[in-house]
Design goal:
85 residues, mainly alpha
Length: 85
């Protein structure tokens, strides 16, 4: 989490909101309880341990739907521009 908050694409988001988002959209990276363990902000810096994060099914398929719609929209715009000119 700590290294992700230094990323320019997150526009200065600090660790607390990022942890809340990760808890909502990700599976536990290891065993039961690892999601809470690796997203806990404490003096032990456990939120800075590298893990293999995966999106949960609902978020993953929502993202695929979004990408599919975006690609379909781009194709439609390209198709229409072939006939307008």
């Amino acid at each position: 989490m700590q290294s992700a908050t230094k990323n320019d694409e997150l526009n200065g988001m600090n660790r607390h909101p990022l942890v809340r988002i990760m808890r909502d959209i990700c599976h536990a990276p290891e065993d039961d309880g690892s999601l809470a363990r690796y997203t806990m902000i404490n003096n032990y810096q456990t939120d800075n341990i590298s893990c293999h994060w995966q999106l949960n099914a609902n978020i993953y398929f929502s993202y695929l739907s979004y990408r599919s719609s975006a690609i379909g929209q781009d194709s439609y715009v390209g198709f229409i521009s072939c006939f307008s000119g």
